[in-house]
Design brief:
- The chain is 43% helix and 13% strand.
- Strand 7 and strand 8 form a beta hairpin.
- A seven-stranded antiparallel sheet has the order 1-9-6-11-4-3-2. Strands 5-10-7-8 form a four-stranded antiparallel sheet, with no helix packed on it.
- It is built from 14 helices and eleven strands.
- By secondary structure, it is an alpha+beta fold.
- The protein folds into two domains: 130 residues, no CATH class; 228 residues, Sandwich (Jelly Rolls).
Length: 405
């Protein structure tokens, strides 16, 4: 076996923000059974190519198709897509570790890269595997294998998205870049001191244009996946279902990250790419759960013209029962102040509100348990619908703001 000495974290805590009855705690036995079954299935798929890496290369697309089929069958039977993503990532890690040769390792990573483009495994997991495999191959002087790895996985994972929206790929969208990381680290200073931060130009012009176009198309083409906005299970139990319509007036869809193209990649950007600098700058594991410790969904919210908005509320229902620590809201499209739909924050005093107008490529961060906020009603004469994407990072809600008791 050609060991890469790389490891993959698979311990996951799921934060169910969509109000499902799932309490967010996976059953360890069930999760283990899924992982075992997935490892066995992937082993069946890859076994014919154990000693024929060139054959695996030429059959990369058909192998990926089998992996997609495995995923589709699992979801069709009612399986949890997030569980399967974790299990498949683990299964690929085992397959890489047991590779019979250097070239077999390179081609296994290349298959994993193609699977990422079909929603089977996360992009960041492929990057981690690529770095570990390439380092191991280079140390051993396996030039042919390094070249094979760079020609496919490497070329995708590290493409250049500068200049034009058409150059943006899921790989470039999910990559951590210095300019973004620096902005997020600076924003964390404001979050600690004031409870919130506004980051303009978060993605940069090319990526922002690509994301805007992808999400606007998704809102139209995936209309059937949207439902009326609800409150989570704890909130509904307190105020009752009858009150929901008077509290919020949006429609929502949950992006799992396995959607094809830039939509799924954007969900992974919110979940992982942003979390990398946030986790570092806010204080590590003591404040936010680490990158590979959980998988949850991005909420895509749409307010049509004339929508009543969302009354003042706090995202976290109580630091002792709710792990949501930091809220992130990204705006792919802009609105004029007169069109309504502004996000209004009340970070310290209800009389000193901070009104934030939706602006293309604007990211807003705020402490989930410390900052009440609302969405203003939308004008009936607005030029277009209001679109926003929200994600909740879990951790210690009381540790996000420096002045928290």
């Amino acid at each position: 076996m050609f060991s890469t000495t790389t490891t993959t974290s698979t311990t996951t805590t799921t934060d169910d923000d969509d109000g499902n009855d799932d309490d967010g705690n996976d059953d360890g036995n069930d999760d283990g059974n899924v992982t075992v079954a997935t490892c066995e299935r992937l082993r069946e798929i890859l076994r014919p190519y154990d000693h024929f890496p060139l054959s695996l290369r030429s059959n990369r697309a058909s192998v990926t198709k089998e992996c997609v089929k495995m995923r589709t069958e699992w979801i069709t039977r009612g399986g949890d897509a997030r569980e399967l993503t974790r299990a498949t990532t683990t299964a690929f890690a085992y397959e890489c570790e047991r590779s019979a040769s250097a070239l077999a390792l390179a081609e296994c990573v290349n298959v994993k890269a193609m699977c990422a483009e079909h929603g089977v495994v996360p992009y960041h997991a492929v990057r981690m595997t690529y770095h570990g495999a390439r380092a191991a191959l280079a140390r051993r002087g396996e030039t042919e294998a390094v070249e094979a790895l760079d020609a496919y996985a490497g070329a995708r994972a590290f493409g250049d998205a500068r200049g034009r929206a058409s150059n943006v790929t899921p790989w470039t969208l999910t990559a951590n870049e210095p300019f973004l990381d620096a902005k997020i680290v600076a924003a964390c200073v404001d979050v600690k001191q004031r409870g919130f931060a506004v980051v303009d130009g978060a993605l940069g012009e090319a990526k922002a244009e690509a994301v805007r176009d992808a999400l606007e198309r998704y809102v139209v083409e995936a209309k059937s996946t949207f439902t009326r906005g609800e409150l989570d299970q704890a909130e509904r139990s307190i105020i009752g279902d009858a009150m929901v319509d008077s509290i919020r007036d949006d429609s929502i869809a949950w992006l799992t990250g396995d959607e094809r193209g830039l939509v799924g990649a954007f969900a992974q950007f919110m979940r992982v790419t942003l979390l990398n600098p946030l986790h570092l700058a806010l204080g590590g594991d003591k404040v936010l759960a680490p990158v590979d410790s959980y998988v949850s969904n991005v909420m895509l919210s749409v307010y049509e013209n004339g929508a009543r908005g969302f009354v003042p509320h706090v995202d976290n229902m109580g630091p002792h029962v709710d792990p949501r620590a930091l809220t992130a809201v990204y705006y792919p499209t802009s609105s004029a102040p007169s069109e309504g739909g502004a996000l209004v924050l009340f970070p310290s005093d209800p009389e000193r509100a901070m009104k934030i107008t939706p602006t293309t490529d604007r990211l807003v961060l705020f402490a989930s348990a410390r900052v009440p906020h609302e969405v203003e009603p939308r004008s009936v004469d607005a030029r277009s619908r209001r679109i926003a994407a929200s994600f909740w990072y879990i951790g210690d809600p009381n540790a996000v703001v420096a002045s928290a008791p």
